[in-house]
What does this fold into?
Amino acid sequence: MPSWTDVEQFLITGLSLGGVYALSGVGMVVLYRATGVLNLAFGAVGAMGALIAWQAINHWGFSGSGGFWLAYLVAVLFGGLVTLAYGMVFGPALAQRDPLVKATATLGLALILLGVMDLLWPSSGGASRAITFPTDNNTFQIGQISVTYTNVIALVLGLVITVVTGAFLRFTKLGTAMRAMADDREITAALGVPVRRVTAAAWFGCGCLSGIAGVLLADLVALDATTLTFLVLSTLAATLIAQLRSIPITFVAAIVIGVITSEATPISSISNYRDMTPFVLAVIALLVLNRRRVISIGRQGV
Amino acid sequence: MESAGVQSAENTTAAAGSDAAPEAAPSAPRTGRAPDARSFVRPAVIVALLAFVLIAFPSMFSQYYVDAWTQVAIYSIVTLGLGVLVGRVGMVSLGQGAVLAMGAWVAARLLFATSLPFPVVLLAAGLITMLLGTLVGLPALRMSGLYLALITLMLAGAITVTLANINFPNGGHGFTGYNGASVHIPPIRRPSAAITDTAYFRYCVIVAIVMFVLVLVHLRGRPGRAWAAIRQSEAAALTAGINTTFYKLWAFALASFITGVAGGLVAGSFRYLNSLTFTTQDSITLLAVVLMGGAYSMWGAVVAAFLLKFLQALLNDWGLSPDWLTILFGIGVLQVLTTAPRGLVDQVPKDLAKLGRLLAKPFRRSPAAPEREEA
Amino acid sequence: MYHHSARVRLSLAAISVTGLLVLAGCGSSSSSSTSSAASSSATTSAATSSAGTASSSGTSVSTSSCGPKPGVKATGTPINIGTIDTKQPGTDFSDGPNMITAYYNCVNANGGVNGHPVKLFVEYDQTQPAQVAAAAKKLIQTDHVVGIVGVFDLLECTVDQSYWKSLGIYEMGAGIAPECWSTPNSAAVNMGPRYSSDGAVQYGLSQHPSKVVFVQSNVPGTGYIAAGPAALAGAAHVPITELTENVPINDANSVALDLVNKAGSGGWVVLNFTPPEALVILQAAQKLGLEDRVKGWGCSTPCNTDFLASALGPKWNHKLFVNAELTSADDHNGPEMQLYKAILKQYGQSVAGGIGSFSQMGFLLGKFSVDALGTVKGAYTIKSVNDAFKAIKDEKTELLCQPWVYGPYPLHIPNNADFTTTPENGKMVTAQQCFNISSADPQIAQYRAAAGTAPSTNPPTS
It folds into this structure.
């Protein structure tokens, strides 16, 4: 059994991991609430933004602290523009379809980005890339462990997004319009809401969120296209526990998943199975929360 | 053949209203037709094609491509299973890759631990995978649409982590049959009649044909009609008295069974298995090719397997990066979902017909010939 | 109508994707390849300039010394050699065969082998065993190769060993699977994960820690790899804990913390991972302030890159000790090293990683195979060529600690003496000169009983 100091130390790393999951989980739920699309390419878009930022810092001469933030801006803009382009080209064509179809289409985007990233930034010759935030060098102590301010930024950012977007979607006119459109596009259009502009704002905003999260995750996890793209699997667990509805629950669920996964690390008998934590928790939650049957009236499948 | 069957089921469901169960509805539109020469042509062509593939194919290609065609044969079973789920019942499963891995694991364990004949091992692998698949998927079947797809993704993730930890059998002892310190790993055995690669190709094609026939029998019978009804509208099917959970379970069991058998064939083909062979991305590309090939017809399954395995071999032979294939599949998914829901198998003949009409336009005598708008 | 406009949209999307690719390709790929050609993807200016001076002194040697007749192009019937290599997203070993091709091109431009040019047929695979087996058959039956040189593959030694045995083929490569060192038909120029981990643990044991923690990625063969360090620690009576981690690693912080806790303040942590994963663990340890919480850190040979040294920063100077299976191109610049750099520069445009262990191994494989082919009298058949390969002995080279040998032994571990490097301000420098891997590892003992112990020589300095 791990000692109390063990539990305490792994709690800190667990909060760090949870912050990672929370950041991308909240981003995905926000997009779902605003556009009705569960963007499974969230991680891929962020990864590509991070790789472009890496390219800028290391090969296009964006050096120093100023260069870093400029590269970050480029990554965020890239995320926004790619997601906007996707939303404007494929959004209307799929608007009437089931959320399943819309999510499957984003899988197509994820595959395209995965292929492009591996072509442009190959892994030959033992290459390993890293992106470091300026705040990585500033740390504070909790017990025997130093914590970088980057971890704090990730957690705080996740919290800020939760609060701000929650309020935005609920209390502002644009936010309400987005929610209405996610629910039913035609009725919203009939009510006189400028559909195309609202859609564009939703896609662009959420795309920027991918870019912001992408560079942070590249620093906190790894700058690797496959790792960052498939990180969405674990963050999906948090979004599923929140039933794709509540942003605060997504945040809390992500933190809990991170902490449990981390606390399992020192326990040798289950340590290698701790990567299953998000999946197991999601399945349990889905089964418990969906005890009542939901029958859909319309056509099934794609 | 199969599309007509689906249509008749759909007609009867629409007309059924609230009292007539699909079981009671006679296949009225079809029995009215008298058998004529044309209804023999299509099966005859198929039989001839299969005979050609079995007999002549291997000598036409080098060993490298014979192996590629073997993979096409094996994976056409997997894509068939996913096609049944996606196209016939409307359940999108993002975890068929993990089911295939389970089947391969069971088959490898049995092949090392026992001296059962290969076909028996295949059957056992199929049945055990079916059992595991339905047990694991049973609670999920109450859901539908996006939640079902996501829960299959979660389950696949859990299975992948488990397999990475217990590893694939490599001739060791104990329940897992994995000897981590092995210095010489023995290969998985093949059927005694099909040890060479060419013979194994034929063996896989035969097994694939058997699986296709199995699915066809299902589609023509009661399950096929029930599935069509559920696909059209689960609520209407329920009101018509169909036990939707039971039939969804049956579809899942069938898909798991044939995928388990395919897993056994993979074990015999690869002869050395490890956790790197089956990745999460495989499940996603599997769905992509099934959508592209066409989830609604049996030929679509073959086209999907061709896209997945043969193109990979081709690109590898030409020295092109497999990333291009990933990009192609991504574009294909987007294309299919937005414009051609029935996939390549349906779309390509239509496109070719359109192209034919376009080319024939200058040669047509009457300038005022009306163009039929292709919906 | 609906479908028509959707088609237009889709074609626009496809065009924009292609455009994006082309634009980005022009922008990034050329710059990344030029920068990586300068050194093994180092990012600091210090590392780049040091590699620059090394290569400029390297070009003083003419490449024509690679062949017997300088300037004379070989025009006889080609000698076909084959290889199978892993190339997939995340694992790309193409630098190895590309360097061998560069070496062969140099030799072909300078007299060839007894007037015959040597041609390398490369088959790539994506870690699918059936592909690897089929590639082997293709090389023999379609391409009619007479020897297999340059296999850098995760699976090949396992899958093809019985086929090579049936044909009498003795392959040479840079191995990964256990069979690359445990069968008569395969010999490697590298040490491989088990023996390189042995070397890293051996250095750690020489510092008298209270405990060793050995952690590796959870890919197939972990038990085989871990058996080496376990034997070494057992012989030294030091307790050892063996762990595996699933890759890719999402939670490097927890991993680093766990390692440090298990090792304790007198412990030694040894990593066996590919560079990206080792980097995230070490960086996490640094961010958590844990790097001084143990006596020392070790890593197997994949960590031996200047890229890792510069990415880690000065806190790891003389704290991380990496087992190095090849002489560093930065520290040493004898005539052979200069020839290697010159060939790389003149013929090795397709070697993306530039100077580094993959291209060094490719150079060695090219050299050993050409030297052996030169001894063949008469026709170049599978029998004559592989007899020559099997007869290779006493191949002295600056790049290895000891002469390389093939020989008629039941197993082959010809590279069994290494040295140790440590990061110092963005570069890897030598911490310990060549030493023999301990015979406490039973496989090493078995090999030395059959082949004897080749004397390990310190690599000559320039």
The radius of gyration of chain A is 20 Å. Chain A has twelve helices and two strands. Chain A has one domain: 4-289.
